[in-house]
Design a protein that fits this description.
InterPro entries: Munc13_1, Munc13_dom-2, PATROL1_C, unc-13_homologue. The protein is built from 36 helices and 6 strands. It starts with 35 loop residues before the first helix and ends in a 6-residue tail after the last helix. The chain is an all-alpha fold. The protein is rod-shaped. It has 4 domains: 241 residues, no CATH class; 136 residues, no CATH class; 336 residues, no CATH class; 72 residues, no CATH class. 42% of the residues are buried. Strands 1-2 form a two-stranded antiparallel sheet.
């Protein structure tokens, strides 16, 4: 066995609540005033006095004790209780004065506890015959231990033992010598003790040890001259007085009132001794008083029939002294070993029970704790000591079941087992920290001890919060399986917390930011999986003996621990990122590993592990990812919506730049949409068609709203002038007369041709207003939106990462050509509307002066269309310069239609300033051909000639009506009016009905023919209108 240099002995812990160099709680109360050396020396004195009649302890001729044991020759009193040792001749302690053949010793106690014999030579503890075995004269003191084995644990001649000539015969050590050696008592102290007892018992050889007040006898009979110097004697005397103080005043076995006169006087004498040693000579005045006081206090008995003095049996003094004796069973050379002579030593210690107030139950409890404590202070090097402690707990359990337990025993039982349980559970509740692959087997010894301690204390106990658990966490445990279950869960939680703490420390050291949270979660998942595998490989096979599904419980705990951290991480994130997805996907993989571990280790479980699986609240990774992705989509759509809202409030419809002639808001809107789609496909998950449709649907609604906003520019009707009332043309009207008077001063045709020209050239200014130009920007914006939608649709429909749709609606929608087909249709309609409004604004508002206001005013010859065409061309040039290429054709067509409409309006609703003769037909036809030519030649074929001709048919039809005779017009009017009204032929006395104004003018429309007649400068027409409709004359 490995030699171990003792770190700390029992004596190092006296007076401390926690044993030095350990985290084991001292269960026997704190003893003030006496240090470890004083306790040790006093314990030896009591032991020697109690065993004075045993071989080797008294008389002039020391009795030699031979360690011979035969397990079958005697009956013991239980494990660890002494029980006496047998020999071949039946002598209890060996033969007196006889030579015996030395045999290899065997220990009944060791055999019962499962400890191995040391297997050393029987003469291992030998002393030279006739030679005094002892230490040098240096006494023991608080400042100088001066005892054998106090250093390295080896005997050394320089450490207090004399060497002997090798030729001299050797003999085995007596039990007294072994005990003195184990208790580190010097020869000088031992000699003083022997002499004192001899003097005390002169003539009283039959006096019982429990009737001797040993400290008092030592004070009476030991002289200062027996010490090396006065200081040494004073230290020794102070120890004896402190022992009396502790046993009689501080910790008396029978309660003592503070007002007791004997106690007050004794306390005063002891205080005086602190400054000056007490005179113990025969002539001393204080010694008789001291003797009387001590005797009076010692002989107080609760039971008058007993004959025992009580000076060392008060708690906790008695336990401190007895534990000091029990500690001597460990070999001072290697304190992981128990002496082979343990049987004899325990039997001798039993003689101190009466003096110290020890019972067998208390002995078993103290002996158990000493074994357990020794395992700890020897750096847990010897697992056998732990096994022995567990074996002794069986004896303690039997004692604890007895009904006649004393209050002191119950107190000791609770504190001792609580100390042992606390130490063991501290490790079991964090066994990942305390045990590694090399020493994991220790759990097999530690766990039974913890379970036995718990069972003795009570089946139903509360496990208080231990390291790593949340404050206030408690758990009721009612079986070994439940307790082991709790150990597993607690240790897993502690180990998991340590991993997190280490990661946090690393992050703080590197000053990493918020984005490192995901990295930490990924690492934590790997660490969690490693922890689960380590648990399954190292700990679960051992713990399975007490808990069938130990590995499953560990997996469940890890699942809960990681799940808690995962939920905290997700709580601070309302949207999805690459990092978040990676964390969730890793969590999903970890969950599968842990669930698989539960399944694999649940074969022997009654419910097949279903109960454990129910504890594992699913991470629901897929649903969380889906929820976060939908939240992300909502956030992106909200961002686009905010952009749209800002556009509605602040858009001015100025071009973004020359190269980007559309509204700035459109660029921003489409950039946000494009970025959203790009980020959408960068998210590392399987994107289904359903999700694509969700995003596209949300975007489409916003695009439709924006399209509606762009198209909100009024209507063409707001620019068409109100139609004047129908009147019949009166050649003698005031207007005609005024016009004729003004004719000499009227502008010539050349002057009219120069209207609108720029001051320094031949090119007239465009009449296009700012408002109309803004309409062009709206039109550009719509076309930009349309082109961008094509690009977005391509990004959505051709992305290789898109998975098939799961929803029927989405599968049906997939068959359509575009995700934004409704928006595209809306844009086409909006383009038509904006183009139409822009065209009517350009012709009826911007070009009002050259078209509706000037064309054919007064007479046709002086109001030709040429000036208007020059302005029109400039306007068209400006329009094509502003508009995007794709917008020009539609815009040009709408301008053409508007200009044709203004011609019709001039001809059919030109007001009182216009009159036409049949002879004007040719000029008007010529002007209209010129207008048609503008559109056929402008813009490099933007409008095909056949389209121009088709749109011009209505105007040409009206112009043809203007070339017909009045009578023909009247006849045609009557026919179409009767047909449209359902009258048939007009009978005698019947009047033609007034045809309604539909605004859809054409040569077959009765209202159109009627208007031609109204503007015909002809007497016949005038009479027809007067007779048929009583139309008034023009003023």
């Amino acid at each position: 066995m490995v030699r171990h240099s003792r770190r700390e002995s029992f004596f190092d812990m006296v007076g401390f609540e926690v044993c030095p160099d350990t985290d084991l709680l001292w269960p026997f109360g704190k003893l003030d005033g006496l240090d470890r050396d004083e306790i040790r020396e006093t314990a030896y004195e009591i032991f020697f006095a109690a065993c004075r009649s045993s071989p080797g302890f008294g008389g002039r001729n020391a009795l030699t004790f031979y360690s011979k044991h035969n397990a079958g020759d005697h009956q013991g009193d239980g494990i660890g209780g002494g029980g006496g040792s047998g020999s071949s001749n039946g002598s209890g302690f060996g033969s007196l004065g006889r030579k015996e053949v030395l045999t290899t010793p065997t220990s009944r106690v060791k055999r019962a506890l499962g400890l191995k014999m040391l297997k050393r030579s029987p003469s291992r503890r030998m002393s030279t015959v006739g030679t005094v075995v002892g230490a040098v004269s240096a006494p023991s003191s608080p400042g100088n231990n001066g005892s054998i084995g106090s250093g390295s644990g080896h005997f050394s001649p320089g450490a207090g033992f004399f060497t002997v000539p090798p030729a001299r015969p050797r003999r085995p050590l007596t039990s007294a010598e072994i005990m003195r050696q184990q208790m580190k008592v010097t020869e000088q102290s031992d000699t003083r003790l022997r002499k004192t007892l001899m003097r005390t018992l002169v003539g009283q050889t039959g006096r019982r040890a429990e009737t001797i007040i040993l400290p008092l006898e030592l004070l009476r009979h030991v002289k200062p001259s027996e010490f090396g110097d006065v200081h040494e004697y004073q230290i020794w005397q102070r120890r004896q007085l402190k022992v009396l103080e502790a046993g009689l005043l501080i910790h008396p076995s029978i309660p003592l009132e503070k007002t007791n006169n004997f106690g007050m006087r004794l306390r005063e004498i002891i205080r005086q001794s602190e400054t000056k040693a007490i005179d113990t000579s025969k002539n001393s005045d204080i010694m008789p008083t001291l003797c009387n006081l001590v005797a009076s206090l010692s002989w107080r008995n609760a039971n008058p029939t007993t004959d025992i003095c009580h000076w060392a049996d008060g708690y906790p003094l008695n336990i401190h002294l007895y534990v000091a004796l029990l500690q001597s069973i460990f070999d001072i050379r290697d304190e992981t070993l128990v002496l082979d002579e343990i049987d004899e030593l325990l039997e001798l210690m039993k003689k101190t029970w009466i003096m110290l107030g020890i019972t067998r139950a208390i002995h078993n409890l103290c002996f158990t704790w000493v074994l357990f404590h020794q395992y700890i202070v020897t750096s847990q090097m010897e697992p056998d000591l732990l096994g022995v402690s567990h074996a002794m707990l069986a004896e303690v359990a039997n004692d604890a079941k007895k009904s006649d337990r004393e209050a002191l025993y119950v107190k000791l039982l609770t504190s001792t087992l609580a100390s042992m349980q606390g130490w063991t559970e501290k490790r079991l509740l964090s066994y990942h920290d305390y045990f590694q692959r090399g020493n994991v087997g220790l759990i097999e010894n530690l766990l039974p001890l913890a379970l036995s301690s718990s069972k003795i204390l009570g089946e139903d106990v509360t496990i208080s919060q231990m390291n790593g658990l949340e404050k206030g966490d408690v758990k009721l445990v009612d079986s070994s399986g439940d307790r082991v279950d709790y150990y597993i869960r607690a240790s897993i939680k502690n180990a998991f917390s340590k991993v997190i703490e280490n990661m946090k420390a690393e992050i703080e050291e590197t000053e990493e930011g918020e984005e490192e949270a995901a990295t930490m979660l990924l690492r934590l998942a790997k660490e969690t999986e490693d922890l689960a595998l380590r648990e399954s490989e190292c700990f679960s096979p051992i713990l399975k003996r007490w808990h069938l599904v130990a590995a499953g419980v560990a997996s469940v705990s890890l699942h809960q621990c990681y799940g808690s951290i995962l939920m905290q991480y997700l709580a601070g994130r309302s949207t999805i990122t690459k990092e978040t997805v990676e964390v969730l996907q890793t969590a999903g993989k970890l969950e599968k590993v842990l669930v698989q571990m539960v399944a694999e280790n649940s074969d022997e479980c009654e419910d097949g592990g279903k109960g454990l699986v129910r504890e594992m609240v699913p991470y629901e990774v897929d649903s969380i990812i889906l929820r976060l992705l939908r939240q992300w989509i909502e956030e992106k759509l909200q961002t686009v919506q905010e952009c749209l809202s800002r556009a509605k409030e602040a858009e001015t419809w100025n071009p973004k730049s020359k190269s980007e002639p559309y509204a700035q808001s459109a660029g921003e809107l489409m950039k946000l949409a494009n970025d959203a789609i790009e980020e959408f496909f960068e998210i590392p998950i399987g994107i289904t068609e359903d999700l694509v449709h969700d995003l596209a649907e949300g975007l489409e609604k916003l695009f439709q709203e924006y399209t509606t906003f762009v198209a909100s520019c009024g209507s063409k009707q707001s620019y068409i002038p109100t139609l004047p009332p129908l009147t019949r043309c009166n050649r003698d009207s005031k207007f005609v007369k005024l016009w004729k008077k003004a004719t000499p001063c009227a502008a010539s045709g050349e002057e009219l041709n120069q209207m609108g020209e720029a001051p320094g050239g031949n090119h007239p200014r465009p009449s296009t207003s700012r408002g109309t130009q803004r309409l062009y920007i709206r039109l550009n914006t719509l076309h930009f939106l349309s082109s961008q939608l094509h690009s977005l649709n391509k990004s959505l429909s051709l992305n290789p990462r898109v998975l098939p749709a799961t929803r029927k609606r989405c599968r049906e929608r997939t068959k359509s050509s575009s995700y934004f087909e409704f928006t595209q249709a809306g844009i086409e309609s909006a383009c038509q509307h904006v183009s139409e409004v822009a065209a009517y604004r350009l012709i009826f508002l911007d070009s009002y002066s050259v078209f509706y206001e000037s064309l054919y005013t007064g007479d046709v010859a002086n109001g030709r269309i040429k000036p208007a065409l020059r302005i029109l061309k400039q306007n068209l040039t400006l329009m094509t310069a502003i508009l995007a290429d794709k917008a020009q054709a539609l815009a040009m067509k709408e301008v053409m239609k508007a200009s044709f409409e203004v011609v019709l309006t001039v001809l059919l609703a030109g007001g009182h300033s216009r009159v036409f003769c049949r002879t004007d037909h040719d000029l008007i036809e010529e002007d209209f051909e010129s207008l048609k030519k503008v559109y056929c030649t402008c813009g490099e074929g933007l409008i095909p000639e056949e389209v121009v001709d088709r749109e011009a048919e209505t105007v040409e039809g009206v112009i043809q009506l203007m070339g017909q005779p009045t009578e023909q017009l009247m006849e045609d009017f009557s026919i179409v009016t009767c047909e449209s009204s359902g009258m048939g032929l007009v009978g005698t006395g019947q009047k033609l009905p007034m045809p309604p104004t539909t605004g859809r003018w054409n040569r077959s429309d009765p209202n159109t023919i009627l208007r031609v007649l109204c503007y015909r400068d002809d007497r016949v027409a005038n009479q027809f209108l007067k007779k048929s409709f009583q139309l008034g004359k023009r003023r």
